[in-house]
């Protein structure tokens, strides 16, 4: 499909071919009302049922989908909602992705926290009571090499029980090293599963290699990671096909690695600094609700994260229906949490829900939901 760059690990796997083939054959305009009704009658969905629930006609069954999704969420997760926050430690990037605020051609204030500053940020966040942190960098091996990320994660493990990373894709040996530094899970956004559109959006850097990015989660599991996260950036291309491919990718990988913890994020395209234009394909809240409900019914055991890209009202409601994980106290800039750091680098994108950890914690309790900071116990 594309040419790997020097040093990129090639693994033996047929999952990419299966996902792309099934996605390309997905003709959602041919889905009938009976297809949707049949899917809603089932306790466990097959791939065709999932496709039916993502179809345009399924919007007419959104209430039934939400009821079913809520029952599935309560069956497998009870009233628990997991809380975390991201920490951006560098915004240097070597890629030219035309929709991203961090892209190498965007004239923004760049910054990278040193390890002392990283610790100050982590100390400040830990005061909120959160026990899960997601460490993020721009995709630059020059400015944020594996050793730097590993050292940051070692510090994070001193303050947080659950540490995730969202960085540039690396080889399985690198994931093994990061796992030894305390990393529990890896999240990768494929952005879009349409490889042709992907090539028009990613113009420079390692991110140009579609298939290497696609196999990041599998390499992470090969490196010993406990969990992996998946996402497409909804609005870059045909959101129904991207949503289908995201969940089908996760579904196939979990069948291959049954012990893996699977999670899915549902980000929509958001404005970025300097207001670059890419003509996004609109995904409205009604369609996003449909996608999240379809994810929940198809993958009942998966965590579904709803980000601060969405507004307070939508997030308050979706956690009652289908989502199980929510971010809080978020800032996508560099060095924004500690008074000693101040804010050193520009944000990746605008957020819509600026509530603090305490505010979201109390909101969840008021809705008779159980905010969960940590559910892991490590034994020697």
Give descriptors for this structure.
11 strands, two-stranded antiparallel sheet, alpha/beta, globular, 14 helices, 380 residues
Folded structure, characterized:
Helix content is about 40%, strand content about 15%. The longest helix is centred in the middle third of the chain and has 18 residues, at about 240-255. Strands 1-3-4-5-7-8-9-10 form an eight-stranded parallel barrel, surrounded by seven helices. A two-stranded antiparallel sheet has the order 2-6. β4, α7 and β5 (about 185-190) form a beta-alpha-beta unit. The protein is built from 14 helices and eleven strands. The model has no long low-confidence stretch (mean pLDDT about 90). It is globular and about 60 Å long. The chain is an alpha/beta fold and about 375 residues long.
Oligomeric composition of the shown chains: single chain
Separation, N- and C-terminal Cα atoms: 44 Å
Strand percentage: 5-15%
How would you write the strand order of the largest sheet? 1-3-4-5-7-8-9-10
- Secondary-structure element string: HHHHEEHEHEHEHEHHEHEHEHEHE
Major β-sheet annotation: 8 strands, parallel, barrel
Helix content: 25-40%
Mean pLDDT: 92
Structure class: alpha/beta
Number of strands: 11
* Poorly predicted residue ranges: none
**Rg from C-alpha positions?**
20 Å
- Work out the helix count: 14
Concise synopsis of the structure shown:
The chain is an alpha/beta fold. It has helices at 15-24, 33-41, 47-53, 62-77, 115-126, 146-159, 172-180, 195-201, 210-214, 216-222, 239-256, 285-298, 312-321, 357-366, and strands spanning 80-90, 96-97, 132-137, 162-166, 185-191, 202-204, 227-232, 261-265, 303-306, 325-327, 370-372.
